[in-house]
Structure to design on (551 residues):
């Protein structure tokens, strides 16, 4: 997924001179094609995330569309206020890219686990979160961001190389991407990010009664557009590779709690159990014990 | 230079009046930077020009707003709404105000953003300089030092960093809080060109701002917090206190007589 991201960015940068990539001294074996082809539009800010986001803000104030690349919590929590004040408040066209969503860097320990980043990034009113489930969703998200530069957060799986069928080519923030339709069912499985296997297992165990949609782009900006679509279902299950607190499932819960409705919708959140904190192991190992199910 | 002096006096008088009206803090921080920003705007900043100014010490925005009023960006009615309910002129710098490029108030944001703007000018081979004004207490923020590493590595000599070195921060004197000395050596060791000046002498400020340097320029402007009103000068108290009517009248009288 990360290599595909760089491929897309390189192709765009050939046509669009406004594209700049800044890395936080990370991206070995990933970012080199961009650096090689556009040395004047590639910068390594070093290990200094606060400065990196501020610099990205300054570049974008003078006409550039900036992608800031790092891993895990470094480009989010470490520089949270720079994202809040410099990027989001000023509505600047900067995309913060983080690789290693969820437990992608499982062996590296809690410092590298991306478990709470939705909570932070979805609290910013102008920022769109892009958490693609597969390569197609990454392509559609990038297509949108390149056409509509805005404050955004692209959350990538470390090693996923998956292409799910039925993806639309064009998608907007808040749109649902159909993965599996179940006729005459009022049950919904709604997921975001890299949760394909967990969702598939869940549906298999439930004997396939669910309509399955993914939301690759979401956030506060498109929250109010969700109620109408969600209220068509009686039972909703959410899936994410993030803890429940402040996560995607909580976002859906909040959508459903805002409107007064006589209709009772049963909601269940599937998420990474916070008991994973302090535990170490491969992504597969940790997911088996603490992943969404 | 007489024009800059006159401009500075007008700004200082308005700072006093509005601080009194709004009962707002940071009057001394605002008085401290008047001569610096009056010189920068008089000589370098034009509407839609190539140069750009960023006030990183956003708590001194009242001085900036009063200056922008004198230059026609902000109407008198708007200026008088400073600090009031529903106003656009909140008590920290806001990009929603005409003529202000960056919302600041949380310290340590202005230099990284200015670094990015200076870098963008280098990439585009664009003319003009970026002037950024920081407070001394603000230098406690690590983000500044991160950016100094970057801007000297990329030799952004189109960036002018002015430090309002009034030697008082929020709760106490700088030397009693987190000492900055030897400040000049710190910037020199990063690879900047450093000049030390009297931050209330328009001629010295101008001569220094005009310098063409091969390296990024840091100007350590020695200033007096509360400059222009003797009973406010160099007192920690006036970081937060606003003047009462008696103090306002006395302050305005002093400014008129000088």
């Amino acid at each position: 997924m990360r290599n595909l991201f760089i491929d897309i960015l390189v192709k765009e940068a050939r046509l669009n001179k406004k594209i700049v990539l800044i890395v936080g001294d990370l991206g070995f074996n990933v970012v080199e094609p961009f650096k090689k082809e556009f040395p004047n539009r590639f910068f390594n800010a070093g290990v200094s995330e606060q400065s990196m986001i501020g610099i990205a803000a300054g570049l974008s104030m003078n006409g550039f569309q900036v992608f800031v690349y790092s891993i895990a919590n470094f480009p989010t929590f470490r520089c949270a206020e720079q994202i809040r004040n410099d990027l989001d408040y000023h509505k600047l066209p900067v995309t913060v890219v983080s690789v290693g969503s969820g437990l992608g860097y499982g062996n590296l320990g809690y410092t590298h686990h991306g478990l709470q980043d939705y909570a932070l990034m979805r609290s910013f009113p102008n920022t769109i979160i892009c958490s693609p489930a597969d390569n197609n969703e990454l392509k559609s998200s990038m297509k949108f961001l390149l056409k509509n530069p805005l404050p955004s957060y692209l959350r990538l799986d470390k090693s996923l190389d998956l292409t799910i069928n039925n993806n639309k080519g064009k998608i907007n923030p808040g749109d649902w991407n159909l993965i599996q339709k179940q006729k005459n069912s009022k049950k919904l499985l709604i997921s975001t990010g890299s949760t394909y296997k967990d969702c598939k297992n869940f549906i298999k165990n439930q004997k396939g009664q669910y309509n399955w949609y993914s939301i690759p782009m979401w956030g506060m900006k498109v929250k109010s557009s969700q109620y109408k679509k969600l209220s068509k279902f009686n039972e909703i299950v959410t899936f994410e590779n993030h803890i429940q607190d402040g996560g995607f499932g909580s976002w859906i819960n909040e959508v459903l709690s805002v409107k007064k409705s006589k209709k009772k919708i049963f909601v269940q959140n599937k998420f990474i159990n916070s008991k994973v904190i302090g535990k170490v192991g491969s992504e597969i190992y940790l997911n088996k014990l603490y992943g969404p199910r | 230079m007489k024009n800059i002096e006159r401009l500075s006096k007008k700004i200082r008088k308005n700072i006093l009046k509005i601080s009194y009206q709004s009962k707002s803090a940071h009057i001394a921080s605002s008085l401290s930077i008047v001569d610096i920003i009056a010189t920068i705007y008089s000589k370098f900043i034009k509407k839609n020009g190539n140069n750009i100014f960023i006030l990183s010490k956003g708590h001194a925005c009242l001085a900036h707003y009063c200056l922008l009023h004198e230059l026609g960006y902000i109407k008198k009615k708007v200026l008088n709404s400073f600090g009031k309910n529903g106003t656009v002129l909140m008590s920290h710098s806001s990009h929603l105000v005409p003529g202000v490029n960056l919302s600041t108030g949380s310290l340590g944001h202005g230099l990284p953003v200015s670094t990015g703007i200076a870098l963008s000018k280098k990439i585009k081979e664009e003319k003009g300089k970026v002037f950024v004004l920081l407070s001394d207490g603000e230098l406690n923020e690590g983000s500044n030092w991160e950016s100094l590493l970057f801007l000297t590595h990329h030799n952004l000599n189109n960036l002018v960093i002015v430090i309002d070195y009034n030697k008082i921060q929020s709760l106490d004197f700088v030397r009693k809080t987190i000492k900055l000395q030897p400040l000049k050596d710190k910037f020199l060791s990063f690879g900047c060109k450093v000049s030390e000046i009297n931050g209330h002498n328009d001629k010295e400020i101008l001569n220094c701002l005009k310098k063409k340097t091969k390296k990024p320029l840091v100007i350590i402007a020695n200033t007096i917090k509360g400059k222009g009103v003797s009973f406010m000068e160099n007192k920690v108290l006036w970081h937060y206190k606003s003047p009462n009517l008696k103090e306002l009248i006395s302050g305005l009288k002093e400014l008129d007589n000088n």
